[in-house]
Protein backbone atom coordinates (compact mmCIF):
# COMPACT_ATOMS: atom_id res chain seq x y z
CA UNK A 1 0.00 0.00 0.00
CA UNK A 2 1.40 3.42 -0.88
CA UNK A 3 2.03 6.05 1.78
CA UNK A 4 -0.88 8.13 0.49
CA UNK A 5 -3.30 5.20 0.49
CA UNK A 6 -2.17 4.14 3.99
CA UNK A 7 -2.69 7.67 5.24
CA UNK A 8 -6.18 7.85 3.72
CA UNK A 9 -7.07 4.44 5.11
CA UNK A 10 -5.96 5.41 8.61
CA UNK A 11 -8.14 8.55 8.51
CA UNK A 12 -11.17 6.57 7.34
CA UNK A 13 -11.25 4.19 10.30
CA UNK A 14 -11.05 4.82 14.04
CA UNK A 15 -7.55 4.70 15.51
CA UNK A 16 -6.75 1.87 17.90
CA UNK A 17 -2.97 1.59 17.90
CA UNK A 18 -1.13 1.84 21.21
CA UNK A 19 0.91 4.74 19.83
CA UNK A 20 -2.33 6.67 19.30
CA UNK A 21 -3.36 5.87 22.90
CA UNK A 22 -0.14 7.15 24.47
CA UNK A 23 -0.72 9.90 27.00
CA UNK A 24 2.06 12.22 28.08
CA UNK A 25 1.87 15.23 30.30
CA UNK A 26 0.32 17.44 27.62
CA UNK A 27 -2.90 17.41 25.66
CA UNK A 28 -2.86 15.80 22.24
CA UNK A 29 -5.33 16.21 19.39
CA UNK A 30 -7.58 13.46 20.78
CA UNK A 31 -7.80 15.10 24.20
CA UNK A 32 -8.65 18.44 22.62
CA UNK A 33 -11.31 16.82 20.42
CA UNK A 34 -12.81 15.08 23.46
CA UNK A 35 -12.96 18.35 25.41
CA UNK A 36 -14.62 20.12 22.47
CA UNK A 37 -17.27 17.43 22.02
CA UNK A 38 -18.04 17.06 25.73
CA UNK A 39 -18.48 20.84 26.05
CA UNK A 40 -21.12 20.63 23.33
CA UNK A 41 -22.87 17.62 24.88
CA UNK A 42 -21.63 15.99 28.11
CA UNK A 43 -24.33 13.32 27.81
CA UNK A 44 -22.66 11.61 24.85
CA UNK A 45 -22.15 7.90 25.29
CA UNK A 46 -18.55 6.77 25.03
CA UNK A 47 -19.37 5.04 21.73
CA UNK A 48 -20.88 8.24 20.28
CA UNK A 49 -17.94 10.32 21.54
CA UNK A 50 -15.48 7.86 20.00
CA UNK A 51 -17.35 8.00 16.70
CA UNK A 52 -17.35 11.80 16.66
CA UNK A 53 -13.62 12.12 17.26
CA UNK A 54 -12.59 9.17 15.05
CA UNK A 55 -11.03 7.01 17.75
CA UNK A 56 -12.19 3.60 18.97
CA UNK A 57 -14.15 3.27 22.21
CA UNK A 58 -11.49 1.86 24.57
CA UNK A 59 -8.83 4.55 23.99
CA UNK A 60 -11.53 7.23 24.07
CA UNK A 61 -12.71 6.00 27.46
CA UNK A 62 -9.11 5.90 28.77
CA UNK A 63 -8.51 9.45 27.54
CA UNK A 64 -11.70 10.75 29.17
CA UNK A 65 -10.67 9.09 32.46
CA UNK A 66 -7.19 10.65 32.16
CA UNK A 67 -8.71 14.11 31.53
CA UNK A 68 -10.85 13.66 34.65
CA UNK A 69 -7.95 12.38 36.79
CA UNK A 70 -5.68 15.23 35.68
CA UNK A 71 -8.35 17.81 36.51
CA UNK A 72 -9.00 19.04 32.96
CA UNK A 73 -12.60 17.85 33.34
CA UNK A 74 -13.84 18.92 36.76
CA UNK A 75 -17.41 17.66 36.59
CA UNK A 76 -20.63 17.21 34.64
CA UNK A 77 -23.93 18.93 35.33
CA UNK A 78 -27.23 19.88 33.79
CA UNK A 79 -27.71 23.44 32.57
CA UNK A 80 -30.94 24.73 34.07
CA UNK A 81 -32.96 27.63 32.70
CA UNK A 82 -33.08 29.87 35.77
CA UNK A 83 -36.25 31.63 34.57
CA UNK A 84 -38.18 28.37 34.28
CA UNK A 85 -37.53 27.66 37.95
CA UNK A 86 -38.51 31.15 39.09
CA UNK A 87 -35.12 32.88 39.33
CA UNK A 88 -35.91 35.96 37.24
CA UNK A 89 -33.23 38.27 38.63
CA UNK A 90 -29.54 38.00 37.80
CA UNK A 91 -27.46 40.62 39.60
CA UNK A 92 -23.79 41.50 39.26
CA UNK A 93 -22.61 42.61 42.68
CA UNK A 94 -19.31 44.34 43.35
CA UNK A 95 -18.51 43.77 46.97
CA UNK A 96 -15.90 46.00 48.64
CA UNK A 97 -14.04 44.57 51.61
CA UNK A 98 -13.12 46.82 54.52
CA UNK A 99 -9.53 45.50 54.51
CA UNK A 100 -7.92 43.70 51.58
CA UNK A 101 -5.49 41.37 53.32
CA UNK A 102 -5.44 37.61 53.08
CA UNK A 103 -6.26 37.15 56.74
CA UNK A 104 -9.17 39.58 56.68
CA UNK A 105 -10.78 38.34 53.45
CA UNK A 106 -10.58 34.61 54.30
CA UNK A 107 -13.73 34.65 56.51
CA UNK A 108 -15.52 36.62 53.79
CA UNK A 109 -14.50 34.13 51.10
CA UNK A 110 -15.69 31.23 53.26
CA UNK A 111 -19.04 32.93 53.88
CA UNK A 112 -19.54 33.66 50.15
CA UNK A 113 -18.82 30.01 49.27
CA UNK A 114 -21.70 29.00 51.55
CA UNK A 115 -24.33 31.16 49.81
CA UNK A 116 -26.33 29.20 47.20
CA UNK A 117 -27.68 32.46 45.72
CA UNK A 118 -24.12 33.37 44.68
CA UNK A 119 -23.42 31.35 41.54
CA UNK A 120 -19.94 32.78 40.92
CA UNK A 121 -17.44 34.97 42.73
CA UNK A 122 -14.18 36.42 41.45
CA UNK A 123 -11.46 38.63 42.86
CA UNK A 124 -11.37 41.68 40.61
CA UNK A 125 -8.94 44.41 39.72
CA UNK A 126 -9.84 48.08 39.97
CA UNK A 127 -12.52 49.26 42.35
CA UNK A 128 -13.88 46.61 44.65
CA UNK A 129 -12.64 43.32 45.97
CA UNK A 130 -15.08 40.72 44.62
CA UNK A 131 -17.53 40.48 41.71
CA UNK A 132 -20.45 38.16 42.42
CA UNK A 133 -23.23 36.82 40.24
CA UNK A 134 -26.35 36.46 42.35
CA UNK A 135 -29.69 34.87 41.47
CA UNK A 136 -33.00 35.80 43.08
CA UNK A 137 -36.67 35.25 42.38
CA UNK A 138 -37.45 38.97 42.11
CA UNK A 139 -36.18 42.42 43.13
CA UNK A 140 -37.77 42.20 46.58
CA UNK A 141 -36.00 38.91 47.27
CA UNK A 142 -32.72 40.34 46.02
CA UNK A 143 -33.16 43.41 48.24
CA UNK A 144 -33.79 41.21 51.30
CA UNK A 145 -30.74 39.07 50.43
CA UNK A 146 -28.56 42.17 50.14
CA UNK A 147 -29.74 43.75 53.41
CA UNK A 148 -30.02 40.57 55.48
CA UNK A 149 -27.06 38.63 54.10
CA UNK A 150 -24.53 40.45 51.93
CA UNK A 151 -24.23 43.56 54.12
CA UNK A 152 -23.81 41.34 57.19
CA UNK A 153 -20.95 39.26 55.81
CA UNK A 154 -17.64 39.65 57.65
CA UNK A 155 -15.47 42.57 56.53
CA UNK A 156 -17.96 43.99 53.99
CA UNK A 157 -17.59 47.70 53.47
CA UNK A 158 -19.94 48.38 50.55
CA UNK A 159 -22.09 46.70 47.88
CA UNK A 160 -22.71 47.97 44.33
CA UNK A 161 -25.20 46.20 42.08
CA UNK A 162 -26.00 46.07 38.36
CA UNK A 163 -28.83 43.94 36.99
CA UNK A 164 -28.93 41.86 33.84
CA UNK A 165 -31.52 43.26 31.45
CA UNK A 166 -31.14 40.36 29.02
CA UNK A 167 -28.79 37.50 28.28
CA UNK A 168 -26.78 37.61 25.06
CA UNK A 169 -24.67 34.53 25.78
CA UNK A 170 -24.48 32.22 28.77
CA UNK A 171 -23.12 28.79 29.60
CA UNK A 172 -20.60 28.81 26.79
CA UNK A 173 -17.72 26.39 26.88
CA UNK A 174 -14.16 27.53 27.30
CA UNK A 175 -12.26 28.34 24.09
CA UNK A 176 -9.86 25.60 22.98
CA UNK A 177 -8.39 27.11 19.80
CA UNK A 178 -5.21 28.22 21.63
CA UNK A 179 -4.29 24.63 22.56
CA UNK A 180 -1.58 23.02 20.51
CA UNK A 181 -1.48 19.21 20.55
CA UNK A 182 1.59 18.04 22.49
UniProtKB/TrEMBL annotation:
Q: HTH asnC-type domain spans which residues?
A: 27-88
Keywords (A to Z) from UniProt: DNA-binding, Transcription, Transcription regulation
- UniProt-listed Pfam families: AsnC_trans_reg, HTH_24
InterPro entries (alphabetical): ArsR-like_HTH, AsnC-type_HTH_dom, Dimeric_a/b-barrel, Tscrpt_reg_AsnC-like, Tscrpt_reg_AsnC/Lrp_C, Tscrpt_reg_HTH_AsnC-type_CS, WH-like_DNA-bd_sf, WH_DNA-bd_sf
Annotated region Disordered: the residues are 1-23
Q: Which PANTHER family match?
A: LEUCINE-RESPONSIVE REGULATORY PROTEIN, TRANSCRIPTIONAL REGULATOR AZLB
Q: What is this protein called?
A: Lrp/AsnC family transcriptional regulator
